[in-house]
Amino acid sequence: MSANRFEYSEKYMDGKFEYRHVILPKDVAKTMPKNRTLAETEWRAMGVQQSRGWEHYAIHRPEPHILLFRRPLGTDPLTGDVNPELERQSKEQYQQELADNQRK
Question: What is the pTM of this model?
Answer without folding.
Answer: 0.85
